[in-house]
């Protein structure tokens, strides 16, 4: 798992939201895909589409990219084109403000921060646990990489899982 690339993705999404882009792309990796799907599941982004270097076709009515991987015009995944694969993310806005606020990395490439269930309970209550600040506002989320995938902190407490703290959305 490369946290350097995740730091680039976080800063890219922050810049794309500030620039008011409707569609942006990030490099395709398993970590990026799982994080993008977690963000989509929590309602921060509208769509996640795997594709090539060119943007996927847009749905004529909804205005979002088609969520189907095998869309006409997108070549199938092979060993020769795996380096050019991209994840195309549809960004959401509400009253001309981005839904995805500030995405910040908690674990750094030089210092990985892990947390257990007891520490997560303190963080969810708004208290500080070691180097992880508490969740203060209702729209704030903390994403944890567990052995069951990337989950939000509240889901980890429900499932009694700890793991590596990846990023925070404010």
TrEMBL record:
Pfam families documented for this protein: Ribosomal_S8
Subcellular localization: Mitochondrion
A molecular-function term among this protein's GO annotations: structural constituent of ribosome
One GO term describing the cellular component: ribosome
Sorted UniProt keywords: Mitochondrion, Ribonucleoprotein, Ribosomal protein
Gene Ontology BP, a term: translation
Keyword Ribonucleoprotein assigned: yes
Superkingdom of this protein's organism: Eukaryota
Chief localisation class: mitochondrion
Family note: Belongs to the universal ribosomal protein uS8 family.
Known role: Component of the mitochondrial ribosome (mitoribosome), a dedicated translation machinery responsible for the synthesis of mitochondrial genome-encoded proteins, including at least some of the essential transmembrane subunits of the mitochondrial respiratory chain. The mitoribosomes are attached to the mitochondrial inner membrane and translation products are cotranslationally integrated into the membrane.
Protein name (Swiss-Prot/TrEMBL): Small ribosomal subunit protein uS8m
Gene source species: Aspergillus awamori
Lineage: Eukaryota, Fungi, Dikarya, Ascomycota, Pezizomycotina
């Amino acid at each position: 798992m490369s946290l350097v690339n995740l730091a680039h993705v976080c800063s890219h999404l922050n810049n794309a939201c500030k620039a008011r882009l409707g569609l942006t792309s990030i490099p395709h990796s398993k970590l990026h895909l799982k994080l993008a799907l977690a963000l989509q599941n929590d309602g921060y982004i509208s769509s996640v589409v795997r594709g090539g270097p060119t943007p996927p076709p847009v749905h004529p009515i909804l205005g979002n990219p088609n969520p189907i991987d095998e869309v006409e015009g997108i070549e199938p995944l092979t060993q020769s084109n795996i380096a050019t694969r991209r994840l195309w993310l549809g960004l959401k806005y509400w009253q001309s403000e981005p839904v995805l606020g500030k995405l910040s990395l908690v674990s750094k490439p030089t210092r990985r921060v892990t947390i257990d269930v007891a520490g997560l309970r303190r963080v969810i209550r708004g208290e500080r646990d070691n180097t992880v600040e508490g969740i203060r506002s209702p729209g704030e989320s903390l994403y944890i990489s567990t052995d069951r995938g990337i989950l939000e902190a509240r889901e980890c407490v429900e499932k009694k899982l700890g793991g590596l703290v990846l990023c925070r959305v404010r």
